């Protein structure tokens, strides 16, 4: 596919096949977390086979994570239940795997309390498998329009501290918004392992079936995913820089370069975007708006479908407050691929015809099964990364990510 002369040196890129970001067992936060994990769990590897996988129901996700009652009260409080281990199993397992979706702070508190109850029954070690973490976006201080730090607290730090101060012994987190929680956990000498869902998403979405694909990176934080996807599909890619109005509800302004739009139009491209989450849908809605009339279609892949009401105001055609569903309900958007990592805040039934949900429950169960047999393997560089062993495409994230600090 030949590039137009004006695009060759600017915004459109071809990449080598099988491009991956810089990976390192020594330099990555995931690698450092793995070494800490090995230190903490080495002494209990011998009894790891005496384990149980117990859904918590916390966060109402993943879909398969059901069976335990969550008490929900009118004031919004949620109190999880627990089970009598001795009655359920005829013994108290030495190791527990607890899946949960701690999307809200109440979920974090409830999960820590459940873990404490199980430890009081005699459980030796507790490993949590998280599909979401409260305040993932509040991962560092943001600057205002003058470059000065906005005096807003970093909530993610407190969420990580809650786990580090609890009786929970280790956490695996699916597709963190950034690797900041891993870095914060390491400061507390707490093993929190990041799980990369890229291959799980792109293979589950069957993106190789998309004709004339063009990958668009929605912001600087997703550059590696966009590059990997373009290499995987053997197609060109472009970057759509995004600026957020941090002082006014974080409204995004996505800018797609003219030469990228021209290339997409001239080659009748079907655009694909990969992101970690869709919260209010503003980014995807703005991309869809700016691709209208240029792209044949837009396919969106996002691990966490939060689907919230837009905080920046605005009304939809029915005069109701604007939501993520309104932003996504655009003709150019042909397919939206998500997981059941979180329970959507707004029912997405209007998007049913274009929505595909990939199930995480079986993947988490496979990870727990793998860890029973391979709790620690210091000499195995493919530990928690080899799908032939783990039976899942979720894998330990060993990418080297530069932590961005706010101006001082």
What do these coordinates show?
- The protein has helices at residues 29-41, 85-89, 105-120, 155-164, 180-187, 198-204, 223-233, 258-266, 282-291, 324-328, 361-373, 387-390, and strands at residues 12-13, 51-53, 70-72, 78-80, 95-102, 125-133, 170-174, 192-196, 213-217, 237-239, 242-245, 251-254, 270-278, 297-305, 333-339, 355-358, 395-396.
- By secondary structure, it is α/β, with parallel strands linked by helices.
- The protein folds into two domains: 5-19 and 199-358, Rossmann fold, CATH 3.40.50.2020; 29-196 and 361-396, Rossmann fold (3-Layer(aba) Sandwich), CATH 3.40.50.
- The protein is globular.
Question: What is the structure about, briefly put?
Answer:
The chain is an alpha/beta fold. The chain is built from twelve helices and 17 strands.
Total helical segments: 12
- Please provide the ordered H/E string of secondary-structure elements: EHEEEHEHEHEHEHEHEEEHEHEHEEHHE
Shape: globular
Strand content: 15-25%
Number of self-contained structural domains? 2
Secondary structure tally: strands: 17
Strand order of the largest sheet: 1-10-9-13-14-15-16
The CATH topology of the largest domain is given as Rossmann fold
Q: Kindly provide the name of the CATH class of the largest domain.
A: Alpha Beta
What is the arithmetic mean of pLDDT? 90
The radius of gyration computed from the alpha-carbon positions, rounded to a whole number of angstroms, is 22 Å
CATH architecture of the largest domain: 3-Layer(aba) Sandwich
Given the helix and strand composition, which structural class is it? alpha/beta
Largest sheet: 7 strands, mixed
Given as residue ranges, the uncertain stretches (5+ residues, pLDDT < 50) are 1-9
Distance between the termini: 46 Å
